[in-house]
Design brief:
Elements lengths: L14 E7 L5 H15 L5 E7 L4 E7 L8 E7 H4 L5 H12 L47 H6 L1 E5 L2 E6 L2 E4 L10
Parallel strand pairs: 1-2
Antiparallel strand pairs: 1-3, 3-4, 5-6, 6-7
Helix pairs in contact: 1-3
Length: 183
């Protein structure tokens, strides 16, 4: 048998390693993220590695040497299981940028994410409603506007802790709808 020698290629930093599940067929997703990062950061990134794995794994690690440090750091940028899904491309770019090139402008990728949760929920007094009465589907009462037919067809009142619904001029408990015949 021939004497096998191993050759180790030098690692060029910063290095981004995208580990993806082959069973889940996430190669194209991993390659897409790699392509987007290379298109955005160009030669600022030393290399991108696509690492096949199994078990629903999708992680993005950044190995880099911070500007004012002598030590190389390996940072978890994204973990699908921990984050509850895949990253938006702009979020991934922002996280990478914050580590390797904080001064870099990302253009439209610097705008707030469309999937970011809206934590500013107006209170009842801010939106002009008392918040005490809601119709069957959860919108504030008065959502019917000025249309008396709609207002009469679906109206709610809060009586003794239970909601009732008016159908025409007859009331019925929401859980016990009366049969109505239409001719």
């Amino acid at each position: 048998m021939a004497d096998l020698k191993t050759h180790t290629a030098p690692v060029v930093l910063p290095r981004i390693a995208i580990t993806y599940c082959t069973q889940c067929k996430w190669l194209l997703r991993a390659a897409y993220f790699g392509q987007e990062l290379l298109s955005t950061f160009g030669t600022t990134i030393g290399e991108i590695a696509l690492i096949p794995a199994t078990g629903g794994l999708f992680t993005v690690y950044l190995t880099h040497k911070p500007e004012h440090s002598t030590e190389v750091q390996k940072v978890l940028i994204w973990d699908r299981k921990a984050e509850g899904g895949f990253p938006e491309t702009k979020i991934l770019k922002q996280k990478i940028r914050n580590h390797i090139s904080p001064e870099k402008k990302l253009g439209h990728s610097d705008t707030p994410s469309s999937k970011a949760p809206d934590i500013s929920v107006p209170t009842a007094s801010q939106n002009g409603h008392s918040g005490e009465s809601r119709d069957v589907v959860g919108a504030e009462s008065g959502a019917a506007g000025d249309d008396p037919v709609i207002a009469d067809a679906v109206a709610t009142t809060k009586e003794a802790g239970s909601f009732t619904r008016k159908v025409g001029s007859q009331e019925g408990d929401l859980g016990m709808a009366r049969k109505q015949s239409f001719k």
